[in-house]
Amino acid sequence: MRKKVIAGNWKMNKVRSEAVQFLEDTKGQVPSFNEVESVICAPFPYLSELVQKAEGTPVKIAAQNMHFEENGAFTGEVSPVMLKDIGVTYVVLGHSERREYFAETDETVNKKVHAAFQHGLVPIVCVGETLEQRESNQTNQLVEGQVKKALEGLSEEQVKQTIIAYEPIWAIGTGKTATSEQANEVCTHIRNVVKDVVSADAAEAVRIQYGGSVKPANVEELLAQSDIDGALVGGASLEADSFLKLVEAGK
Ligand code: PEP
């Protein structure tokens, strides 16, 4: 039985006081880590403080991106060493917004996944198709390519620990959720790809989230699907009440 992972992706939202207040507002109400993994993916400036504030609670703190190098002349970048140093435990890699606006590629995502494992960070690897690709029946092929490249060169053990987030781009921030059947169909395909390229054990263990306009009203139906092991949530993770409902559904 795979434990569900609910991750709130705040993107470029909240000022410091709001970020801290969120943890205050959810304190004591998030289910235990044994029941469900609850993750907040916060902007870089707040990570250190949020890690400290979340200590002793079930909430884990994630970065929304990182560089693959440990250090060097990469102005404006943040390294895995720095994230590890401040106690961050998860990192979102290859989000479609990074692929679209910041030239993230399958190759850089793969380098970042390796760097995450090298430094003890759990990668949440995002994959997903555009509306055009879905309408021209390229979804499975496209997602398969993204998954294979992202996992290239990892050990079976590392694949088991990876979290894959299937996020159809047309459903992100649009209010258009994939139906639970559509979402599950692609998640099942991803699991089969992992089985083919890694092993049946890895496919059984790897957790696959769905992301794209998930909210309290639709989360239960999505999480009830056979191959959906959690959710990566943008808009509906910004309010404490809403986030609490999402993690509750993951129990
Ligand atoms: C996301 O940020 O990855 C996302 C899925 O956003 P939203 O839930 O707002 O669609």
Give a quick summary of the entry.
The chain contains 12 helices and 8 strands. The chain is an alpha/beta fold and about 250 residues long. It has a single domain (about 5-250), classed as Alpha-Beta Barrel (TIM Barrel), CATH 3.20.20.
Q: Please, could you describe this protein's structure?
A:
The structure is a single chain. By secondary structure, the chain is α/β, with parallel strands linked by helices. It is 45% helix and 15% strand. It is built from twelve helices and eight strands. Strands 1-2-3-4-5-6-7-8 form an eight-stranded parallel beta barrel, surrounded by six helices. The mean pLDDT is 97. Phosphoenolpyruvate is lined by residues 9, 11, 167, 172-173, 211-214, 232-236.
CATH architecture: Alpha-Beta Barrel
Instruction: Tell me the series of helices and strands, N- to C-terminal.
Output: EHEHEHEHHEHHHEHHEHEH
Helix content: 40-55%
Q: Count the E strands.
A: 8
CATH superfamily: Aldolase class I
How many separate domains make up the residues? 1
Bound heterogens, unique:
phosphoenolpyruvate
Task: Give the end-to-end Cα distance, rounded to a whole number of Å.
Answer: 12 Å
Described by its quaternary structure, the protein is: single chain
Strand content: 15-25%
* Sheet with most strands: strand arrangement: 1-2-3-4-5-6-7-8
Structural class: alpha/beta
What's the gyration radius in Å?
17 Å
Q: So what's the CATH class? A: Alpha Beta
The number of helical elements comes to 12
Largest sheet: 8 strands, parallel, barrel
Low-confidence stretches: none
CATH topology (level 3) name:
TIM Barrel
Q: pLDDT average, as an integer?
A: 97
